[in-house]
Amino acid sequence: MNRQNTFVTIATLALLGFAGTASASIGEAIHNMFTLPANTGAINTKAVSMFFGFVLISLSITVWAAKRTKSTSDFYTAGGNIGGFQNGLAICGDWCSSAALMGVAALIYSTGFDGLIYSVVPFGAWPLMMFLLADRLRNLGKYTLADIVSLRLARVPIRTLVAGASLAFVVGYLIVQMVGAGTLISNLFGLNYEMAQVIIGVLIVLYVAFGGMIATTYVQLIKAVLLLSGATFIVVAVLAKFGFSLNGLYQAAVDNHPLKTGVMQPGGLLPDPVNAISCGVMLIFGGAAMPHVLMRFFTVPDAKEARRSVAWAATFIGYFYLLTFVIGYGAIAFVMKNPDFLDAKGIIIGGPNMAAIHLSEAMGGDLLLGFISAVAFATIVAVVAGLTIAGASAISHDIYANIFRHGKATDAEVVKVSRIAALGLGVLGIVLGIAFKGQNIAYLIVLPFTISSTVFFPVLFLTMYWRRLTTTGVVVGGWLGLATGILLLVVGPTIWKDILGNAAPLFPYKYPALFSMTVTFVTMIVVSLLDKSERAKAELASFDDQFVRSQTGLGAEGAVQH
Amino acid sequence: MQHLYKLIHANPRFHELERKRSRLSWTLAVIVLANAFWYIGATAFYPEAGFARFWGEPVGEGQALTWGIVIGLIQTVLFIGMVVYYISRANGDLDALKDAVIADALRAAGEQK
C-alpha cells in the first residue's frame, strides 16, 4: 500500500517537473531543498559558467535570428524553412522537459519498474502522431491549431475555444516549469528562487520577442543536443561500471533497493486500474496533441519534411527514453546507498527528483554535475521558450488578428502584437512563478495534459477524420469537456482533499482524462448529428475539399522564400 | 483551387491513395495503442491477469533482468522502427501516387480550358 502511495504521489509530479508532492506539503519539500547541507549559500561556479556559455551562444543566435524575423510567418514558423532533421531535434527539445530526465529517474528510484510507464507510454504518442496527425496537420495548418479547425468551421467561436484552451494549457505548464526552475536553481546553482524566475523570464522574452521561431528553434536544438549527450555520458559511465552488462546493473539495483526483486516487477497501480487507464489515456492522447509541439510541424516546408521531423524526433526521443531505463536504475545502484547523497536519516538529499543529478556527480564528479545542472536549467529555459511562442501565437494570431480584427490586421501589426504578447507572457511567468512559490501545484501538472487530451486531441481528430462535424458540435463539446476536466480535477483527490483539506474527494480519480475526453467526443458527435442548421449543411459540403487538401497538400501553406 | 479539389476527388486513384494510406496508418496505430495499453494494463493488473503475470519473471535462471523490462525496451525500439517504416512508405510509394494524382488533375484542368 505504501508503495502505491509513493507511486501515485511521485507519478503526478514526475509528469512535468518536480514541483512538490501531492500528499506531503510542498512547502516542506522546498524547505528541504533549500537546506541542502552541501549547497547552502555556495554558488556552483562550474554549473553557472556552463549555463552562462549556453546563454551567450543562444543570445548570439537570437541577435542573428532577429535580423531574419520580419513577417508573421518568420515569427511563428521561421518562414517554413526549417529542415526535417533540425526540426526533429528541436521537437525533441520541446518534448523533453526536465521531467523526462529527473522525473522519470525519480519515479524509478522510488518505485522501480512502474516508473518506466512514464517513458514507454508517453512515447507511444509519437508513432500515433505520425500515423494519424502529422501529414494532415502540415497540409491544413498555418500557424496555430485553431487554423486547422477553423478552415471549414466558423472562425470566431472555434478560435475562441482553441485559443482559450491553448492559453490555459500554456499558463498551467508555464507555472509548473517556473516553480520547478526556481527550486532547481536555488538547489543546484546556489542562486535564490526569485533570481531564477527573473533570469528565465528575461531570457525568454529576448529569445521569443526578438528572435521569434528561428531563435526558439535553435535554442531547442542546442538544448536537445546537450541533454542527449549529457544523458548518454551518464549511461555509458553507469554501464561501464558493470562491464556493459545490463543484468549486472539490475542486479545491483535489486541488491540496494528495499523492494528487492519487486523493483523489477510491475505492481504499484494495482488497487486502482481506472486511475491507471485514465492516466494512460491522458499521457498518450494528451501527449499527441500538445500545441507547442504540434506548432513545430508548421516550421517545415511540406508534409514530407513534417514526416521527416517526426521520424527524427521519435528517434531522438525514443533513444532518450531508452537511456532512462539505465539512469533510473543507475541511481538506485549508485546513489541509494552512498552516504554523500543521503541525509542523517538516510533519505536522499533534495528528494527523489535529485536522483539523476546525484547520479551525474557519482559518475563524473563536479564537472559532470555542473554540466548536467546547466543542462537541466537550459532545458527549462527552452521548454518555457516553446510555450511562450505557442501562447504568443494564440494571443496575436488567433485572438487579435482573427477574432478582434477579423483577419484584417496587417503583418506588421500582428508581429508587433506577438512581441508584446511574448513580453507579457514573460512578465506573467515571473509573477506567477513567484506567486506560486511554496504552493502545492500538483494539480497544475495534470492540467495541461488534461486539456490537451480533452480538447485538442478530440477536436483535431474529428476535424480531420469526420465529415459530419459542425461548429456547434465542436463548441459545445469542447467547452463542456474542458469544464468537466477542470471540475473533476477540482473535486478530485489532489485539490479537494489535499489542498482544500476535505476528508474525501467527491471524484475518486487523480486523472480525469478518461472521463473528460469521453464527454468531449460524445458531445461533439451527438451535437453535430443533431445540428440541422444551414451552416452545418455548408460545413458538411466543404469536407471533401478539406479532405483532398489534407491528403495531397494542394493549397497548403508553403515555405517563404527570402 | 476548388476546381482542382473536385477533379481530384473524382479520380479513383485518389481513393486508392486514401485507402492505402488509411489502412497503413490505422494498422500501425492499433499496434501502438495495443502495446501502450498492454503496458498500462500490466502495471495496473499485475500479477492477477495472465497477460501481465510473466512481466515480473526473470528472463533466465539467476538473472535480475525481468521480462517486463525487456518488453519495455522492445516496445520503445519497435515504436521507432514503426515510425521509420511509415515514413519509408509515406515518402515513397504513397507520395509517388499522390504526385500522380495531382498531375492527373492538373492535366485534366488543362484540357478543360
User: Separation of termini of chain A?
Assistant: 62 Å
**Whole-number total of structural domains of chain B:** 1
Main pleated-sheet profile of chain B = none
Number of domains of chain A: 1
Element string of chain B (H = helix, E = strand):
HHHH
CATH class of chain A: Mainly Alpha
What's the alpha carbon Rg of chain B, rounded to whole Å?
23 Å
CATH superfamily of chain A: Sodium/glucose cotransporter
How many E strands of chain A? 0
Mean pLDDT of chain B: 90
Q: Flag low-confidence runs of chain B.
A: none
Question: How many helices of chain A in DSSP terms?
Answer: 23
Q: Describe the global form of chain A.
A: globular
End-to-end CA span of chain B: 15 Å
Taking all Cα atoms into account, the compactness measure Rg of chain A is 23 Å
Q: Kindly report the CATH topology of chain A.
A: Sodium/glucose cotransporter
Low-confidence stretches of chain A: 1-41
Question: How would you describe this structure to a colleague?
Answer:
The complex is a heterodimer of chains A (562) and B (113). By secondary structure, chain A is an all-alpha fold. Chain A has a single domain, classed as Sodium/glucose cotransporter (Up-down Bundle), CATH 1.20.1730. Chain A contains 23 helices and no strands. The longest helix of chain A is centred in the last third of the chain and has 50 residues, at 355-404. Chain B has 113 residues and is an all-alpha fold. Helix content of chain B is 82%, strand content 0%. Chain B is built from 4 helices and no strands. In chain B, helix 2 (12-45) runs antiparallel to helix 4 (67-112).
In short:
Chain A is built from 23 helices and no strands. Chain A is an all-alpha fold and 562 residues long. The longest helix of chain A is centred in the last third of the chain and has 50 residues, at 355-404.
Give the topology:
The complex is a heterodimer of chains A (562) and B (113).
Chain A: H1 2-14, H2 26-34, H3 45-68, H4 72-77, H5 84-95, H6 98-111, H7 117-123, H8 125-140, H9 145-149, H10 155-188, H11 193-241, H12 246-256, H13 273-287, H14 291-294, H15 303-334, H16 355-404, H17 411-435, H18 442-465, H19 471-490, H20 493-499, H21 513-530, H22 534-541, H23 543-552
Helix pairs in contact in A: 1-6, 3-11, 3-16, 5-11, 5-15, 6-15, 6-16, 7-13, 8-15, 8-23, 10-11, 10-16, 10-17, 10-18, 10-19, 11-15, 11-16, 11-17, 12-15, 13-18, 15-16, 16-17, 18-19, 18-21, 19-21
Chain B: H1 2-10, H2 12-45, H3 50-53, H4 67-112
Helix pairs in contact in B: 1-4, 2-4
